[in-house]
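A favour, since you know our structure tokens better than I do. It will help me judge whether the discrete encoding reads sensibly. The space below this message is yours for that.
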Amino acid sequence: EVYYSPEIFNEPGSYAQYHCASESIIALKPKNISHLEAATLPLAAGTAWEMLVTRAQLKINQTILIHGGAGGVGIPTIQIAKAMGATVFTTARDVHHDFLIKLGADYVIDYTKENYIDRINELTNNQGVDVIIDTIGGTTLTDSGKVLSQLGQVVTLVDITQPQNLIEAWGKNATYHFVFTRQNRNKLDELTKLVEQGKLKPIVTKVFSLEDMDKAHDLLETRSADKDFYGKIAIDVKHQIL
């Protein structure tokens, strides 16, 4: 049993029962989760792995701020960062706080009620955090320098849609990484180990059939308006008839 993430730019899509895929991006599926759960891992958790391990090279006892902790990428990023021994700060609406703390977050900040910059500086005695993970965009790249430690790092997977002023980050000698995740077997092998060790768990909150793909897309496009929604959306194709 195997799993993988389709090569987005090299193939027409992934809504099918069968794919042709390069063996270099295929790995053994974790034995303790279902195929449906495994299907939600490679892209999101693979992105988290690339941000934390390949780019930021997060170290034990470092501090990290993960924006959008209840999102599809935020959830595995929290778990992997915690498995690597970091102190985890994250932002999310208060309805998700208990869940994210159980997931491994040390501090959760409701960005709708608190100024996360002031709160992070208060919690770190104005030392800032070592790594910032940006999954939300907006002014995050500009604001990151205000909560970053000296020689800190910012990793973003979001398109830059507006000019950013990085003067604060320049004063911190910061490093910025821009990530579009790449598929490979080694990354998946490491994720499999974490899953089988109980340190990483896929969170699937909505499942649709292939026939209901339109409903899945509707939810995906409006999920930001649903204050209670978190985790991943999955498509179950196992009952489809050829």
Q: What stands out?
A: The chain has a mean pLDDT of 91. The longest helix spans residues 41-55. The CA atoms of residues 90 and 117 lie 12 Å apart.
